[in-house]
Design a protein that fits this description.
Layout lengths: L21 E9 L8 E10 L4 E8 L9 H4 L3 H5 L4 H12 L3 E4 L2 H14 L8 E4 H7 L9 H7 L10 H22 L5 E3 L65 E5 L6 H10 L3 E2 L9 E4 L7 H9 L3 E2 L1 H8 L8
Helix pairs in contact: 5-7, 6-7
């Protein structure tokens, strides 16, 4: 059972009529962050309109490829080999999501991974809206030191028992979401809901199959994730230069464009190096420092005094947070040929 960390709500408090009728708190563990990576485990806590738990569900998923960072999620090729394929659990997963708002920490990532899996299976996830708990914590102006799940959990006194395990992460998020939802209702805060647009087609690139991991090793400390090692998320080789010219600065309300120079500052809920790799795969230039040529700075703490934030102010460089950057990465404009 979930512990109740919800502040007392007066019986006279009117529940906002515009709030959703139900939520699906989701966490997925994956082989990585790239568009060709796969889900290896998934958990869903179904909540009613006021955040009370109705039920929960968890499954392993055979990704049919290398499991990726085993040193983080702990799921080896041997563990996953007998697990169901995504096509085997797609119907049950969909039933857990149907007619509910998908809630996740950095929700754009979980949604994109889920949408891609359904596209591969020639299906469509029954999700029309998502809610990111990072965005909600900002809307509530919670005094968090950073936007990691562990910080949100600590704020509400939620004990995290097994980080990076989908079921426990989903439980922790459900426990933290309920008081957040009630605080929003009490304060008349508009929930940060975003539209979910399912993919309609998909084409995969060849990747190492499960049981044939790169380097021949799986598990902790191995090099079985396309050149990644347990000591770092960075590729063991130097990244090639961005092949596209810098089109200039990012403009609010518009799309990112291939070739733009992006810098990162401060803590992120997703490992920094994975975010950088994802940006590179989208055709962006990841800059280690900030200059007048930088197109965009990504930071969850724009009021910090880091050198990059100070230079961004000095140069007038646009700044977005991690959640907004994740959404922008989903639709990067191709470079002009």
């Amino acid at each position: 059972m979930l512990e109740d960390h919800t502040p007392a709500v007066s019986s006279a408090t009117m529940w906002p009529a515009a709030y959703p009728n139900g939520y699906a708190v989701v966490d997925v563990e994956t082989t990585g962050l790239a568009r060709d990576d796969r889900i290896i485990s998934a958990a869903v806590y179904r909540l009613d309109a006021r955040g009370e738990v109705e039920d929960h569900w968890y499954t392993l998923v055979n990704p049919e490829r290398d499991p990726g960072p085993v040193w983080i999620h702990g799921l080896t090729s041997e563990t996953l080999e007998g697990a169901p394929l995504f096509t085997d659990i797609a119907e049950e997963f969909a039933a857990r999501l149907a007619d509910r708002v998908l809630v996740a920490h950095n929700a754009v990532f979980d949604w994109q991974m889920i949408a891609r899996e359904y596209a591969r299976a020639r299906g469509e996830a029954p999700v029309r809206q998502r809610l990111c708990t990072i965005a909600l914590s900002k809307a509530l102006d919670l005094p968090l030191p950073n936007h990691k799940l562990e910080s949100l959990a600590a704020h509400f006194g939620v004990v995290q028992r097994r980080a990076h395990h989908a079921l426990d992460d989903a439980r922790v998020l459900a426990e933290a979401f309920r008081p957040s939802l009630h605080a929003a209702a009490q304060g008349g805060v508009r929930l940060p809901l975003h539209e979910c647009r399912p993919l309609t087609e998909w084409a995969d690139r060849p990747v190492p199959r499960i049981g044939r991991q790169a380097g021949g090793q799986g598990g902790h400390g191995g090099s079985g994730y396309g050149g990644y090692r347990a000591t770092s998320w960075r590729p063991s080789r130097k990244r090639p230069a961005c092949p596209y010219p810098n089109p200039g600065r990012y403009e609010e309300g518009k799309r990112l464009k291939q070739g733009m120079r992006v810098a990162f500052s401060g803590d992120t809920s997703v490992e920094r190096e994975l975010l950088e790799d994802r940006a590179v795969e989208a055709g962006l230039h990841v800059a280690t420092s900030l200059s007048r040529l930088t197109s965009l700075l990504v930071t969850n703490d724009p009021d910090s005094g880091t050198s990059k934030v100070l230079k961004a102010r000095q140069y007038g460089t646009p700044v977005v947070d991690e959640a907004a950057f994740g959404q922008l990465l989903g639709d990067v404009e191709p470079a002009e040929r």
